[in-house]
Amino acid sequence: QVQLVESGGGLVQAGGSQRLSCVASGRTFSSSAMGWFRRAPGKEREFVAAISRSGSSTDYADSVKGRFTISRDNSKNGLYLQMYSLKPEDTAVYYCAAVTTVTYLFSSQCFTKPDDYNAWGQGTQVTVSS
Description:
Helices cover 0% and strands 48% of the residues. Strands 2, 4, 5, 6, 9, 10 and 11 form a 7-stranded mixed β-sheet that branches. Strands 1-3-8-7 form a 4-stranded antiparallel β-sheet, with no helix packed on it. It has strands at 2-7, 10-13, 18-26, 33-39, 46-51, 58-60, 68-73, 78-83, 92-99, 119-120, 124-129.
């Protein structure tokens, strides 16, 4: 019922920046907690950043703290990831995700585990050259 579409990926040089966007559509009971995950070749999907339903709380993986910023604009059903000081090891397919289960419909927390999320986008490739 919820569709997520990412955009903004591409090729960028090490040290550069990139801004990813995710637009949500479809029927929902309320705004959902959301997050960004990534999967590099040969590695498991890993947590990148999360944001609560209202945007009042955020959480980041240690590997991206100080470099990435997650934000949302609920009036536009938008989720964003601003990435600075990109490194080759940031190369991955980036996915946006949402927690739409009734159990957490009224929650104010961030979620960091992939299993917490039940709606996923198709992913967008970010390639950082050295």
